[in-house]
Design goal:
alpha+beta; DNA helicase activity; DNA polymerase, domain 1; OB fold (Dihydrolipoamide Acetyltransferase, E2P); 5-stranded mixed beta barrel
């Protein structure tokens, strides 16, 4: 079982990154791929390995706390890796913890693939573990100086919208978010994605 990988991020896609470690490229599914930089500086990516009969998958996180939160969500009946990543993609993890503590079902049902029944199950199964769900997440936004063309979407916005689709949000939700984001000043893909998730939730 892997604990973490230290290597260069060589590719970023809407639903995964590639981490190269000693000449081997590991495909790692992450909540927000665009929070990772493609550069020559090695990154430390915490890893959760899922083994099934037909596949071995790697899931990556910025911190051990984020990984633990992912594992706690996986322990909830009805929550799979994709749903857990979609929940973690929203950077407001404190809001998630508060929603669990305060029985706020409506907050949790805003995540893709989470209905009232599953949201209630998350609250019931994790509420007594609330103290362990208070990690400090320090993900610094990346600034982009690339100008925005008012007549068409810039590449950063396109990538962010693709990431929302990869997380499971509907075409209707993505288009609604696109209308709001296109009015915003230039951002990095990571910032567009974070802002889009805050609008959706």
């Amino acid at each position: 079982m892997y604990e973490y990988l230290i290597g260069n991020v060589t590719d970023v896609q809407p639903d995964y990154i590639v981490v190269e470690v000693q000449g081997i490229g590991y495909r790692v599914q992450v909540a927000n791929p665009y929070s990772f930089d493609i550069n020559e500086t090695p990154a430390k990516v915490y890893i959760y390995q899922a083994v099934r009969e037909d596949a071995i998958s790697l899931f990556g996180f910025h911190s051990s706390e984020e990984k633990k939160l992912f594992q706690k969500l996986l322990n909830v009946s009805g929550i799979g890796p994709k749903s857990a990543l979609a929940i973690l993609a929203n950077p407001d993890h404190q809001g998630l913890v508060e929603a669990i503590a305060n029985n706020n079902v409506s907050y949790i049902t805003k995540f893709p693939g989470i209905g009232k029944k599953t949201a209630s199950r998350i609250i019931i199964e994790l509420q007594d573990k609330i103290e362990a769900l208070l990690p400090t997440f320090k993900l610094e936004p990346q600034i982009s100086n690339q100008p925005v063309n008012d007549d068409q979407m810039n590449p950063e916005l396109k990538d962010a919208l693709a990431a929302l689709k990869a997380l499971g949000y509907t075409e209707k939700d993505v288009k609604r978010t696109q209308k709001a984001l296109i009015k915003e000043p230039p951002m990095s893909t990571d910032q567009y994605l974070r802002h889009g998730l805050s609008l959706l939730n």
